[in-house]
Write the structure tokens for this entry.
Amino acid sequence: MKIIDIESWNRKEHYEFFSKMASPYFGFTTEVECTKAYNTAKENGISFFAYYLHKSMVAVNSVDELKLRIVDNQIILFDEVHGGSTIGRADGTFGFSFFHYSDDFETFNEGLQKEIKSVQNSTGLGISNDVLPINHIRHTTIPWRSFSALLHPTNFDPKECIPKITFGKFSIRDGKKYLPVSIEAHHGLADGIHLAKYIEEFERQLSL
């Protein structure tokens, strides 16, 4: 963990400018090719969701700007960030979840599957966002449809700083599978180039 010296930070003016806005989030929606990742998951009897979620977490942790958080008016660069995701239930509701990051898929997936079972056997929203560690990143999945745009709810808090990533149902074109991905972040902490770095690394991970 590292405290950023805001006065000497090359993003000082960017941070101050966007932090004055009621909603400083920005982002975009794109696609990543996921054919090989899907095939690998199915060949090994692995949940495709768990597989690509882990690849996303690896990519997130490769971009420092996505590990920055605002804590008590300080900018903190965390060594790593963990995962949070909405988990669907059989009754059509969902609950929030939290799981620790590991670069080892088996370790990551073990914790994720335990959390999925816990949420599916609970009611309401599950774990409260108020008690989640700030060094996590929010994921959600819309598995029923692909999409080309997305709108998130917001409480218009300029200190809200946890990035949001959303996945949709993959589409198939010319025999290849494409996963829609939306990513949003506090513009005072990250720019388009940093979100693009995440997307590029995510797609690279999916191709391994």
Notes: The chain is about 30% helix and 30% strand. The chain has a mean pLDDT of 95. The domain at 2-206 is CATH 3.30.559.10 (Chloramphenicol Acetyltransferase). The CA atoms of residues 76 and 168 lie 31 Å apart.
